[in-house]
Design a protein that fits this description.
Number of helices: 4
Structural class: alpha+beta
Number of strands: 7
Order of helices and strands: EHHEEEHEHEE
CATH architecture: 3-Layer(aba) Sandwich
Number of domains: 1
Shape: globular
Oligomer: single chain
């Protein structure tokens, strides 16, 4: 089930951030997005647990993916795909014509998923990531 992020999700999402990212968002970072009118954060729930989540920002005709993460025990079950589909729907409903994100070139499985979902490589941000330092591939999908 996909639901909007609420205060009740924050503690578990901080655990997910710490599990997945070298520069994780903290409780304050996530909580601030609850009142941000350009932010749309969604949570995938499975078996009374949080399986994953995704955050997007829509401004004018553009949408930017800030976060997407799935707990290791819930990977390869279609959860990230479901989150992406819902985020694209939300972006369209908010007037976005495209959705963009950055991904580490070494994250081959994520790139494969994004490509399957219609994202295309449109650029590169040099030294975008830290711990370890790595470029960020810019991927964009035109929304229909």
């Amino acid at each position: 089930m996909i639901v909007p992020m609420g205060k009740e999700h924050i503690t578990r999402l901080v655990e997910l951030e710490n599990c997945c990212f070298s520069q994780p968002w903290n409780e304050q970072n996530l909580s601030e997005e609850l009142d941000n009118h350009t932010a749309h954060f969604i949570v995938a729930e499975k078996n009374d647990d949080i399986a994953g989540y995704m955050g997007i920002f829509t401004v004018c005709e553009s949408c930017y993916v800030s976060n997407i993460a799935v707990f290791p025990q819930y990977r390869r079950q279609g959860i990230a795909s479901l989150l992406i589909d819902n985020a694209c729907r939300i972006a369209l409903e908010n007037g976005a014509e495209s959705i963009s994100l950055e991904v580490r070139p070494s994250n081959v499985s994520a790139i494969a998923l994004y490509t399957k979902k219609g994202f295309e490589e449109v650029g590169l941000r040099k030294n975008f990531y830290r711990n370890p330092t790595e470029d960020g591939l810019i991927l964009t999908k035109t929304l229909e």
